[in-house]
């Protein structure tokens, strides 16, 4: 093995073991998924689809892709699956390419309400630049405002309505969104990237009866390798008999070349694992754990967007603590706790220096942690944030954007050398070592 690369991989393995991973879109794959990812399938080009390839030598590529497709269709109860999209954004892009012409109107949830960049975020994304993007959002209480969504749909008549998000912690009413889409003659695409595992385990209602198309990444709550699925439903196929073939064509030749067969092999493994009763138990615990985290934060007086969670994630507004999401996330990293900063609904700050942090339980639950450990994790987070605010200057609001780069650089320097945070980090590593990951991998 390349000495330098091996050294870095070993350090990353140690980091993943020693730190507490709370980014809700990350997880730990099984050893069998890792094995498939590192398989010889990485060597093969397979443009096209099973039995319709452009290159020779695809006998086993066909088998592996068919297996992944079959498992995806069973898990999500759909008549069609495409497993080739390299990740969530390319999957969503392919759906836009399949269904729309440039300039058509699309409607998705705004980023600050918990949506995703590919759901029509204006100006800086392809979905917001090449299409006429209308964005719905949440009410001041933090729940999707379905009434306003319906009014907007009737007013703007989008060709595509996108449901789902990446920082929305509440149950999504796919049935109602499907009805709204029908009323205005729009396609309904449900992006379930975050909640796919919950949908499989039935802890979140499935969009399959109510959406025309479903997209999902495979590496979040599904606990697979990086990749994505695009599924079409009976509802979608009845509306447009060409839908599935439009999706296939939008992937290749539309937006991608050869599929990543080693990832597809890993996806097949993960989808097989997701069919097991253990996976359902795992997801049930994921939700119990994220609710347990919420309860501790509520007791400690934190503001949680929407006041709680129904899923694997929660969004904390840390601004009332006199710290922003950027500073909170950095302070936590120096204490061995990994979260991501996140914009919150009606945020007055910017996505780079937002008011919130986003936390999730999938990775910690994969390590075997339960509610009792969540109590400890939330307490460590609270202790770290309180200490940081008490002992360092975390007020960066010298202008409306609150950038204050010089002051932020000083803050980072302080974090690096702070001995109390080092103590917490050590305590966290000891705690984490009780929940080993990949014990037999160096
Ligand atoms: N980066 C993903 C997430 O963290 O939710 C979305 O693309």
Automatic annotation (TrEMBL):
Annotated ranges, domain Serine hydroxymethyltransferase-like: 2-381
Protein name: Serine hydroxymethyltransferase
EC number: 2.1.2.1
Organism listed in the record: candidate division WWE3 bacterium
N6-(pyridoxal phosphate)lysine PTM sites in chain numbering: 220
General function of this protein: Catalyzes the reversible interconversion of serine and glycine with tetrahydrofolate (THF) serving as the one-carbon carrier. This reaction serves as the major source of one-carbon groups required for the biosynthesis of purines, thymidylate, methionine, and other important biomolecules. Also exhibits THF-independent aldolase activity toward beta-hydroxyamino acids, producing glycine and aldehydes, via a retro-aldol mechanism.
Record-linked InterPro entries: PyrdxlP-dep_Trfase, PyrdxlP-dep_Trfase_major, PyrdxlP-dep_Trfase_small, Ser_HO-MeTrfase, Ser_HO-MeTrfase-like, Ser_HO-MeTrfase_PLP_BS, SHMT-like_dom
Pathway: Amino-acid biosynthesis; glycine biosynthesis; glycine from L-serine: step 1/1; One-carbon metabolism; tetrahydrofolate interconversion
Any one Gene Ontology BP term: glycine biosynthetic process from serine
């Amino acid at each position: 093995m390349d000495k330098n690369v091996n050294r870095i991989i070993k350090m990353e393995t140690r980091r993943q073991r020693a730190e507490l991973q709370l980014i809700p879109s990350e997880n730990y794959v099984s050893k069998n998924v890792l094995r498939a990812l590192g398989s010889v399938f990485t060597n093969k080009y397979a443009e096209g689809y099973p039995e319709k390839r452009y290159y020779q030598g695809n006998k086993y590529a066909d088998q592996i892709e068919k297996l992944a497709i079959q498992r995806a269709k069973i898990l999500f109860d759909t008549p069609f699956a495409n497993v080739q999209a390299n990740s969530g954004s390319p999957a969503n892009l392919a759906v836009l390419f399949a269904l729309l012409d440039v300039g058509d109107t699309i409607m998705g949830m705004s980023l600050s309400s918990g949506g995703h960049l590919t759901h029509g975020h204006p100006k800086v994304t392809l979905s917001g630049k090449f299409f006429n993007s209308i964005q719905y959002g949440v009410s001041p209480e933090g729940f999707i405002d379905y009434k306003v969504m319906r009014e907007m749909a009737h007013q703007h008549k989008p060709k595509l309505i996108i449901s789902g998000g990446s920082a929305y912690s509440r149950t999504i009413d796919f049935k109602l969104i499907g009805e709204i889409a029908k009323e205005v003659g729009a396609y309904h695409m449900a992006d379930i990237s975050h909640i796919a595992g919950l949908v499989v385990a039935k802890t979140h209602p499935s969009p399959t009866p109510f959406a025309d198309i479903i997209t999902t990444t495979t590496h979040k709550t599904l606990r697979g390798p990086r990749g994505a699925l695009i599924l079409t439903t009976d509802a979608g196929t009845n509306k447009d008999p060409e839908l599935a073939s439009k999706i296939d064509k939008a992937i290749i030749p539309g937006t991608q070349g050869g599929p990543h067969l080693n990832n597809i092999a890993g996806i097949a493994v993960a989808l097989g694992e997701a069919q097991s009763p253990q996976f359902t138990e795992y997801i049930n615990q994921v939700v119990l754990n994220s609710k347990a985290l919420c309860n501790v934060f509520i007791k400690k007086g934190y503001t949680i967007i929407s006041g709680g969670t129904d899923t694997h994630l929660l969004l904390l507004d840390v601004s009332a603590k006199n710290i922003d999401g950027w500073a909170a996330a950095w302070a936590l990293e120096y204490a061995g706790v990994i979260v991501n900063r996140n914009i919150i609904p009606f945020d007055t700050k910017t996505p780079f220096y937002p008011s919130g942090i986003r936390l999730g339980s999938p990775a910690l639950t994969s390590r075997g942690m339960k509610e009792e450990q969540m109590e400890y994790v939330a307490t460590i987070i609270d202790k770290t944030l309180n200490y940081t605010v008490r002992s360092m200057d975390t007020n960066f609001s010298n202008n409306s954007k609150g950038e204050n780069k010089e002051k932020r650089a000083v803050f980072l320097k302080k974090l690096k050398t702070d001995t109390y945070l080092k103590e917490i980090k050590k305590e966290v590593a000891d705690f984490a070592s009780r929940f080993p990951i990949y014990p037999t991998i160096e």
